[in-house]
Amino acid sequence: MSNSQPFFDFAPIWQSRVLLIEGFGIAMFSAVAGIILAIILGLIIALMRLSRFKILRGFAFIYTQLFRGVPLYVLILWIYFGLVYAVGIDIPRIPSGIIALALLNSGYLSETFRSGILAVSNGQREAGQALGLKGWQVARYIILPQAGRIVIPPTGNQFIDAIKDSAILSIIGVPELMKVAQEQANLFYRPFEFYTVAGLLYLVAVLIVSRGITALENRFAKYSRKSGSSENSVVTTATTDASH
Amino acid sequence: MSETLLKINNVTKVFGTHVVLKDIDLDIVKGEVVCIIGPSGSGKSTLLRCINFIAPPDQGEIIFEGKTWKRFHSRFNIFANRKYEGELPRLRSEIGMVFQHFNVFPHMTAVENVMLGLTKVRKEGRAKAREIAEQSLIQVGLGDKLNQYPEKLSGGQKQRVAIARALALNPKVMLFDEVTSSLDPELVSGILDEIRRLAKDGMTMVIVTHEMNFAFQVANRIVFMDEGRIVTMGTPDEIRNTTDPRARAFLSSILG
Ligand SMILES: Nc1ncnc2c1ncn2[C@@H]1O[C@H](COP(=O)(O)OP(=O)(O)O)[C@@H](O)[C@H]1O
Ligand SMILES: [Mg+2]
């Protein structure tokens, strides 16, 4: 470090503030869009895995294994470059990144949702059936609300991972926070400053999301967790289960 | 004179290779109270669950109010099976069921628990449903707990919610599966009193219980099951004086 320059030079950061904020916005947008799609896909895949139709179960199983097994790095490159090369489907950068985040996270979330659904005791389903509710009504009014409560914390963790993972979108040139930080760091020869600020921005986002998740948990804490679910079930973010 | 409400015809239920119910025949008359007794694992719960097809019988049929309910056996007859499954909720909504472990919905208040069947099965409007649900809860002595979540209720109160939830749909028959077995001893008699009240009102009931004194008192007929079969049945007096060795052994083990 040269003596003529301060340890932490804030000036270049300030000059690049608009680019940094835009990059931050794109990163957050990608993570939020990715996780919302992942929740929808994950729920569909989880329901398929619990279906009584073998074909659906098989498809969901392969889906889960595939997207949990491939590194995000590979997934992104494959969607952005591979699809054009292989089948001529050209998806722009940001949608490519969002799709990659959605697929990867849906693989994990489908397992989370599946164990959340299984954690609701069978007695709950039977009580609903005994009232004369139809199958979908039992799912909609009895199982899913209780499973939803159970899966809030692991889903929140997945969201936090998605925020941090969005940095990888830089490899296909998405102008998100990491890409902006790289470019500006090179421009000003101040890597320490730019990467520190980028890291802090991710950290702030993660802290805000964590608070949001806690708030959400408390909102649903009006009934106890244990009374609706079987005592011995454990829900984890990534339950590996190849035995089904 | 007495009109058969529910016929259990030749019902067999198998789990894997384990034959849990074997050729069960039982007719239940309108207004009758039938108590089912027998050792643990003898198939009492499974029999109740066959009646409303929560555990569909593998063979045999249930005739309820003259309509026959049975499972189709052809795996290829997807449409017939779908149609039959689609109709099951209609059968179930006429049959109330109360469980050993209450199975109240923890994410709903007492009144919401009772309203669910009214709004979704009986298609009542919310206001009407709430009115019926509140009445139903008041009947079982929970008028002051309408808006409580189950977490805040005792076991006995949860079981009352479950009873109110079933009764609110105005079922033609009630099934009780050891509904006092997981209650603290001091709460048992209150729940049994609720069932006695129903008996007095003429409700048709099938009650699985280990409370022998209660069974002798409330039942028109007692059925003794062992190893998936009905071993013997009769009036309380007949069962008290039964000569069947297994029934005698069971009664002396439970009555001491
Ligand atoms: N879902 C099930 N899967 C496999 N076996 C079962 C199932 N439900 C009950 N059984 C078996 O069926 C037998 C009868 O059970 P159950 O009807 O609960 O008896 P009871 O209520 O008289 O104690 C038991 O041996 C039990 O292990
Ligand atoms: Mg039982």
Descriptive report:
The complex is a heterodimer of chains A (244) and B (256). With 244 residues, chain A is an all-alpha fold. Chain A has nine helices and no strands. In chain A, helix 2 packs antiparallel against helix 3, helix 2 crosses helix 5 and helix 7 runs antiparallel to helix 9. Chain A is flat and about 80 Å long. With 256 residues, chain B is of the alpha/beta class. Chain B has a domain of 178 residues: P-loop containing nucleotide triphosphate hydrolases (Rossmann fold, 3-Layer(aba) Sandwich), CATH 3.40.50. In chain B, 39% of the residues lie in helices and 25% in strands. Chain B has nine helices and ten strands. A six-stranded mixed sheet of chain B has the order 6-7-8-3-9-10, sandwiched between helices. In chain B, strands 2-1-4-5 form a four-stranded antiparallel sheet, with helices on one face. The longest helix of chain B is centred in the middle third of the chain and has 16 residues. The mean pLDDT of chain B is 94. Classes of the chains: A mainly alpha (244), B alpha/beta (256). The structure holds adenosine-5'-diphosphate and magnesium ion.
* Overall number of structural domains of chain A: 1
**Main sheet characteristics of chain A:** none
The CATH topology assignment of the domain at 4-103 and 178-255 in chain B is Rossmann fold
**Superfamily at the CATH H level of chain A?**
MetI-like
Bound molecules: adenosine-5'-diphosphate, magnesium ion
Estimate the helix proportion of chain B, in percent.
Answer: 25-40%
Mean pLDDT of chain A: 89
Distance between the termini of chain B: 39 Å
Measured between the Cα atoms of the first and last residue of chain A, the distance is: 58 Å
Give the proportion of residues in helices of chain A.
over 70%
| SS-derived structural category of chain A | mainly alpha
Q: State which percent range the strand residues of chain B make up.
A: 25-35%
Sum up the overall morphology of chain B in one term: globular
How large is the share of residues in beta strands of chain A? under 5%
The number of helices of chain B is 9
Overall body shape of chain A? flat
C-alpha Rg of chain B (nearest Å): 19 Å
